[in-house]
Amino acid sequence: MHKLMVLYPEPADPDHFRDYYVSNHLPLVTRMPGLLAWRYSFEVAATQGPAPYFAVFEAEFADAAAMTAARESPQGRQAAADVANYATGGAVVIDYPVQNGTI
């Protein structure tokens, strides 16, 4: 599995961010090909001090190739272009392969 994570710093207008993100942006994201699962939260907390991020998003893909294909698809390009409409604080995008742990 491969994950895409987006970390959002505090926006200029948190209410606009929340409303636009749920009503407009997430519907675009869900159309990306190869997307297996996704989740988000506006309740980001730090274990000590203020949280450096306002919101977080995770998407799961079968592998890095599937994630790349999704991001390069018309739907992925549309979702990426939409970020400027709500994320006035910017966005940090990272991706990584998931390593399973054992107990």
UniProtKB/TrEMBL annotation:
Extract the PANTHER family matched here. Answer: BLR8190 PROTEIN
Q: SUPFAM superfamilies from the xrefs?
A: Dimeric alpha+beta barrel
> Which Pfam family, just one, is annotated for this protein?
EthD
Q: Gene3D superfamilies in the record, alphabetically?
A: 3.30.70.100
Q: Source species, please?
A: Actinomadura nitritigenes
Origin superkingdom: Bacteria
Q: Where in the numbering of this chain does the EthD domain appear?
A: 11-88
What is the protein named?
EthD family reductase
